[in-house]
Structure formats: C-alpha cells, structure tokens
Design a protein that fits this description.
Strand content: 25-35%
Number of helices: 6
Structural class: alpha+beta
Strand order of the largest sheet: 5-6-7-12-9-10
Order of helices and strands: HHHEHHEEEHEEEEEEEE
Number of strands: 12
C-alpha cells in the first residue's frame, strides 16, 4: 500500500492526490482495455502501488487509502480491483502456523468495500466541497453514499435519507482503529447532517 522508501509516510498516503497519481500511472492499462473492448482490471493493487512498507501498509492508514483507491479506480472505469497476499506487510491477512488467520486493517477495508459496493453496483461521483470525496452507490440492495474527508478538521455533510429507510445505518473506517465501526441509529427526520472527521471513510444507507 505504499512505496518502500523514505517518502512513504502516513501523510503522503492520505493525501488527496496519492491514489489519483497511482490511477493516472495505470492509465495505459485502461486505454489498452478500451481499445480491444475488454474490461480493465487491477489484479494486484498492493503491488501496483509500489509494494509495502512495514508499519504503514499494515496500519489503519492503509485501510483508508485502500477504500479511496478502489473507489477512484471504479469511477475512472476499471471493472474490478483486487488485492492479494504475498507474505509481506501489505497482506490483508497473516497466515499463522496453526492454520488460523489474523486480520490486518486492510482486511477491514476489503470487508467494508464488499458490504457497501456489491457486485453489479453503479457508482456516481457526488459534487461537494473541495475537501470532500463522495460517491453514490446504487445496487440491488438499495442506495448508499460513501464519504471521505481530506479536511484538517471536522466537516458537516447534509444527507437526504429515503422515506423507506427506518433507521440510520452507518459504517466508519478511521486511521486509529483496525476495525470498521458499524452503528444503527433511530431516524426521526429524513434529512440528516453528518459530521465527518479528517481522514475517515463513512458509508450511510440512503434508500
């Protein structure tokens, strides 16, 4: 999830242009796939991002980067985005000698993406403040919005919830926890205002 050199830092990995630069570097793949009318696939996102760095690729920061990277890739036109294991720091799981698995923060990101962007989903970027990256996801299960903030302080985001939604279902990834935080709150009005902390990813069911 990061380059194996001194320039790989949490601040750089969380910058707004980190994933965009990497997606742009892979632009030749997208162009080649379109030229032959084939789906564009990133099969090893961890390697495509120049490998891993212990202490960073296996930290919660990597989970934020991974969600942003996948969403950005899908919005650019990639059909599938995969991560893999190679026995190094960017692995989502550690395979223990007794056959058990230990999940790393990247595993929480993959679980988050599987839950909120199921196969067959349609994604659309949502306009908003400069420091907000928002996408609407429509699937057979309904509609949701995924939000992430590049701001240095909390920002307020208005969200309209469909009349058929009886409770506010939220899912949050942060740079301080290896796990995603899921919550369900009572819904009294169908236009809510969410407070989004810096460098978090939040998903909310809207319909």
């Amino acid at each position: 999830a990061s380059g194996p050199n001194a320039s790989a830092t949490p601040q750089r990995l969380l910058s707004r242009f980190s994933d965009l630069e990497q997606i742009n570097q892979l632009g030749w793949l997208l162009g080649a796939a379109r030229a032959v009318h084939r789906p564009a696939v990133i099969s090893e996102s961890n390697s495509a991002s120049r490998g891993g760095k212990p202490g960073l690729s296996d930290s919660p920061v990597a989970s934020i980067w991974a969600v942003r990277f996948v969403i950005d890739a899908l919005l650019h036109g990639y059909q599938q985005v995969y991560f893999h294991s190679a026995g190094v720091s960017y692995d989502p799981f550690v395979f223990n000698p007794d056959g058990s698995l230990t999940a790393r923060p990247l595993a929480s990101a993959l679980s988050f993406l599987h839950r909120w962007i199921p196969v067959g989903s349609r994604l659309r970027a949502v306009a908003g403040p400069r420091d907000l990256f928002a996408v609407m996801v429509v699937s057979a299960a309904g509609s949701s919005m995924i939000l992430t903030s590049f701001a240095r302080k909390e920002i307020s985001v208005p969200v309209t919830i469909g009349a058929g939604v009886g409770a506010l279902r939220l899912d949050t990834l942060t740079t301080t926890s290896a796990l995603d935080i899921q919550s369900v709150l009572p819904l009294k009005v169908h236009r809510s205002r969410l407070w989004l902390a810096p460098n978090t990813v939040l998903a909310v069911r809207t319909a």
